Please model this.
Amino acid sequence: MPVHCVPWRMARWFVFAALGVACAASHAGALVINATGVDLDGRPVVEIKLDGIEDVPETLVRNQVRLRVGEPYDSEIAEQDIVRLTHLNRFRSIRVQVSENDEGSLTVTYQFDTLALFEDVAFSGNKSVADQRLFQAVTLRGGDPIDEFLIQRGAKRIIDVYKANGHFFTSATWDVELLKESRILLYQIREGPKVRVREIGFNGNEVFTDKQLRAQILSKTFIPLIRAAPLNQEQLDVDAGRLQEFYHAHGYLNARAGRDIQVSPDSEDAKVIFAIEEGRRYLVANITIEGNDVFPDQQIAESISLKVGDVYSRDRVERGKRAIRSMYLKLGYLEVNAAIDTQFHEADPTVDVTIRILEGIAHTVGRVTIRGNTLTKDKVILRQLRGINPGRRFDGTGVSLTRRRLAESHLFTREGTNLAILGQPGDRIRDVLVEVEETNTGSLGFGAGVSSDAGVIGAINLSQRNFDIADPPETILELISGKAFRGAGQSMNLSLQPGNESQRYSIRFKEPYLFESNIFLGTSLFLFDRVRSDWDEGRTGGSVRLGRRFGDVWSASVSVRGEKVEIDRIDVDAPVDVFQVAGEKTLTAVGFVLKRETTNSRVFPTRGNVLEMSLSRAGALGGDFDFTKVSTSFVNFWTLDEDFFNRKTVLSIRIESGIILENNEAPVFERFCAGGHRTIRGFDFRGAGPRGRVDPDQIPDSGDEFVGTDAVGGDFLFLLSIEYNIPIYQDIMRIVFFTDTGTVDPDVDFGDYRVAVGTGLRLKIPAFGQAPLAFDVAFPILKQDGDETRAFSFDIAVPF
Model:
């Protein structure tokens, strides 16, 4: 009975030979195929045998085989079977043999050389790194094929994990005899001492000081109880690259940076020396512009920051390319390309810069199609489009802005939001496809919490960010399923917050685009009660705000507010200011707000600023009080650094000021106050400011009028805060260092100034919302008599 190997066509032989090489790279087996030229296709298969599968389940193997008994033999199917079986990663080699029976039928035998499997994978000697972390590194488990290459790779990865943690002398081996006898892979680890960076120095730098260079690197030195600073060679290599780029950015194009590690005799401490070769500084000798027809040379030259005579900087070159591209994008030249070529003259040393522009053609917006919105109305999405108006030229810079606005609208998922410009580069009219994936925009939350400023509070919160007041439910099922009152991009919030010191109940509604215009409308109703130290305060009222946006930066609004305020349960030693407003009072006010906002995020801004100026006239619509309040606030954010994971270190400065124009006309509950998490940390809530005078007639045998302990606020406010925000762990934890300063006074006076310094943590927990939780510790270094201090405070970290 003759035996034949599977025949192969030459083209397929090359394909599967390549697959064999790939398999050999992934494990120590090989795909073995022999060809004799005998054509057996079409003959009936009477038997299929599996030879040498050993511990591999037969069912698992047969599920990969597509040849069937009773069907004609097909060599292509046999070839595909070998590929599928190889992907199981359980065999070193696979061979198919075909036996021809006397009657002409075939017996097909799959012959396997089976890989041995790990019974278990374990570690010994690891004390400072948990098994789970090592398993993540080696990616080997019991039941995986035994492969020498993968074992060695795992040992190297273990060493890399330890080096990242500062164990510079770690070794990792495995018990060879145990592996042979019981197929157990036991990694034997010798951790060695943990090496800490005690000192960082620089050698060869003359242009820049050590302090300037130290600011460019991420490696830090060891500080007991504060910073571990393990020796990390990969990080040091990255730092050397950062130093080199720093020099290149300042025109030292031949600069090089390396590093040297000096370990102490006890192998616990290390000194890192960065060696610098500065070279010479290159200047720009000539700038030539080519290929431009739309803009003249002078306009293009003025748009870039690189000028003749300037220090050559690759960073400025890249900024110049972006500036040129932005000019053309604004006019619809979507395919514009700006290339900057350089020719260096080492003898001078100078650089000739040539800007070559490939303009392309201007594109006009065609049809805009929206997909994926099942509940959200098209108009809500179209509002977010910038520079994409059908029939007009594209504004390419608006395209990227549109993508960001859609992603940050909180109506759609970031992953499912996409904007595509259809057609070919040569088409003058290009259609636009906007694809969105709706996310859950409603929430019903129950909870409780503690605030250092508000005591213990409960919370029942119902909110909908995609509300539609004009879409009532037609059936009870629509209401239950959440399909009613949705889709118009309005916002609605119902909040119930009972507590032991304060209670707040409110309902708010906002229409961001009234009648599909840039006019916005906001309304609110609220009820507020607070138990203060010497009196209780209750407020019931509402407000209406009508405003208009002027582009995406400026906005202005007018508001009307009306409240009933009741002051009762007044202690006898309460300030005179409180007794003056005892009982139920009516307060009305008309306000005006002008706002400018350029931040890149409302939750965690890393650049931009917010300026807000407001004027409020109390008594304009009647009531018991007449006064005018003027306020201004400004906050700015700068990104100072960005790490490998795109986490940014941010510096922010906040300035706030306010004044009540009429002296002693504003009631105590409308005056400015300071102290607490959102004004001056390190002081109690309302703890920094003037104390009220107590009427001796209220307290028997008290003598003359005296100053009490209760804060009564002031007619003048000034606050200045600086905060440094640094990432610590992923996007979950950050640390802040801050200085809060300010004053509250009856008159414009900086004599009673307060200063506090502190640090804190920011924890971002998705279950608690988008804004992180803030835990701060602050200590006053300048305070006034009567001020009430508080070291610890916690709240929601609201950026502005």
Summary: The first helix runs from residue 10 to 26. Residues 1-37 have pLDDT under 50 and may be disordered. The chain is about 15% helix and 40% strand. Residues 107 and 408 are 64 Å apart (CA to CA).
